[in-house]
């Protein structure tokens, strides 16, 4: 039986892929096209060009006009995606989003809208989120989907109180959006992910009479339980309401059992699933593999990889990652490497999560040689590190004062675009300043700015002090100008319980 995703597909209408060219002769004129030929072949280069213009130009419209680049829906999505994963300036991304939306006959895609809202929400620009939503509702309300509601509520729930999250949900309804059970599910999912199950359960009971709970509602709530007793009680409530559990429901309960080290219950649940003609899938077995690792049985977990094939279920990368993690926790790295080789031999590609399991072990054992060797292997296989990979490496380099290795990692990041420049640069600048590498620090600073990322104020102050001592007046002025171009940072104060304390204007209409 195939795994059923919890998220519902968007119900918005089809939005045609439209291309826009900014003409030199008339910046306000547009070129509309429904397809591409040669322009598509250089899409990656065009994305890089546009991203640089957005992050460096003082007159964005004129710069885009001069570039002659066609701005298709596909290109716009990729530029916004670049902002998202590179932690770019959200207001620059918003300027780009608004500018491209002003063209007559052009409509953003749901993906572009949701990506833009995610970027703003991550930076706590909630006022701008609602401005975008009201503008989209005026121009093209069909773009606002359940996924849009999910994106916004998740970012708000992450830093705001449950009350503010609930008020934001109600604000969607005040906008005139007809939120059904899918919208209710989006609210519950946000609370399960960012708050506590108690909060989600209270909101569920508060609103369940306004929205008819369905299978997805219960699966969302089941996925958030940590206690098997509470999960079992909710599972019973589900069946009493006439909602029949599916594979996702059982996998949620399986996950609770395995994380709670209740492996006997997990095995009994597998038998119950088969009795009800529901075949456990790779997610079910991955939970069991993880649970066996928690109870100190990595060898038995490895056997599950073989046993599941007998039932016609083949391990994926996540299943192997769980088994590899078990051996790393048990400090049996030889067995972990054997599984890594077996994984490759089965035609599966290790991902950043796979390597991070090893990087974590090497970091805590202060094993620089193994970390560096694994990083080289990672590059040779074409697997891009993620931010977690970079942080394990850069902190280890900093701990052992390996400037050359740190700079090689940084240059790989600049060249390829992986990882978080902001997080890695803080550790890198500390290392370079501690070692008196002022020239290298200046170069990395300028590379970061060139990519459109603002170095932290702490890092800038450290470099500034060293430059003042070295009497590098012109270089310091240049870096100061670069920092000033990003504008002042917005200070956000924390209220009680560590929650972000925002005025009602951030979330509610004035």
UniProtKB/TrEMBL annotation:
GO biological process: mitochondrion organization; RNA processing
Protein origin, superkingdom: Eukaryota
Single GO MF annotation: mRNA binding
UniProt GO cellular component terms: mitochondrion
Keyword terms: Repeat
Repeat region (PPR), residues: 246-280, 281-315, 316-350, 351-385, 386-420, 421-455
NCBIfam families from the UniProt entry: PPR (TIGR00756)
PANTHER family: MITOCHONDRIAL GROUP I INTRON SPLICING FACTOR CCM1-RELATED, PENTATRICOPEPTIDE REPEAT-CONTAINING PROTEIN PET309, MITOCHONDRIAL
Protein name in the entry: Pentatricopeptide repeat-containing protein
Species classification: Eukaryota, Viridiplantae, Streptophyta, Embryophyta, Tracheophyta
